[in-house]
Amino acid sequence: AGFFEWQRIYGGFGDDVAYFIQETNDEGYIVAGDTDSFGSKESELWILKLTSIGNIEWERIYGGSDNDYLNCIQETSDEGYVVTGNTYSFGAGDSDILALKLSSAGDIEWQRTYGGSEEDAAYYIQETSDGGYVIAGYTDSFGAGGSDFLLLKLFSDGDIDPSCELVGSSVATVQDTSTFAVYTSIPPQPTGTQPQSTEIFSQETSAASNLLCEARPIISGAVKTEGGIGLEGVTITFSAEEGTATTDSDGGYSHSVSYGWSGTATPSKTGHIFSPASKTYTSVTSDQTDQDY
Question: In this structure, what are the phi and psi dihedrals at residue 48, rounded to the nearest 5 degrees?
């Protein structure tokens, strides 16, 4: 027990550091970290896809004109990968969270930044059961002061909400690198480390959560005649520039509004009178169903 199955080193003439490794569905491995051996600056995102015995299938760096750092990579259900870290090349502030969705070959399918005017970074990303992603990190741009926990729930394309100013874009480039695996011969050695008791106690905290980008509530319902037949082509106008919805062939409609929206929804169609003539809403924070006329 304790012997190596295989051991290898990967890198160039600069500093190269791996931060994350995961076994992949093909029994190989995906490895992620930073490199200054390859690329044009101090730190590039570096990803290697390895076989089950450590041979390199592909290797690539990702980044922009400034330093970029990678903290986590996960294989996704479509056999691609999702990556997160932080970037000084793109975004709104000092450092922004960077997320990349890669194909199984390492090509970029989409890329996003998230953050404010100060330093924001991510340490972990995971695919969720609904096909989206969740990111955990910290923010200096938002919160109660100093650095606060930051959690982001993303749609499958990396967006949060169309009205959310937290989401930005990046144009990270992809380059192949030229490292190769080198066999090493480090012998395993027993250590004299002994377990020690600690006196750590759990403590209650008084942290409060703050929503940065709230999900848009959905207002839905149907417009029908007095005989109960759905009325197609009715325009429902939402005040305060929240847009319009048009009923379908069954008279149904569905429309999202800004979180906390207050205003009126007014149906209209030439030659028709509606009851009620409009509906009034105050501070909408959840979906409103059965909003019928």
Answer: -125, 135
Q: What is the C-alpha to C-alpha distance for residues 73 and 85, in angstroms, rounded to an integer?
A: 9
How far apart are alpha carbons 100 and 239 in whole angstroms?
A: 37
Contact 212, 154 (CB under 8 A): no
- Among 187, 189, 173, 182, smallest CA distance to 16 is for 182
How high is the pLDDT of residue 68? 84
d(CA 168, CA 149): 20
Q: Is the dihedral of CA 197, 203, 205, 209 positive or negative?
A: positive
Cis bond leading into 276, ω under 30°?
Answer: yes
- pLDDT tens digits for 225-259? 999 999 999 999 999 999 999 999 999 999 998 87
Task: Give the contacts of 129 (CB within 8 A, at least 6 positions apart).
Answer: none
Q: Write down the pLDDT at residue 214.
A: 67
What pTM was computed for the model?
0.65
Cβ-based neighbour number of residue 51 at 10 Å: 14
| Interacting residues of 277 by C-beta distance below 8 A, sequence separation 6+ | 266
| Per-residue pLDDT at 43 exceeds 80 | no
CB atoms under 10 Å from CB of 174, counted, come to 15
Dist CA 210 CA 141 (whole Å): 13
CA-nearest of 48, 43, 60 to 9 is: 48
The domains of the chain, with CATH numbers, are: 8-183 (no CATH), 218-284 (2.60.40.1120)
For residues 155 and 231, what is the distance between their CA atoms, to the nearest angstrom? 33
Say what the pLDDT of residue 113 is.
85
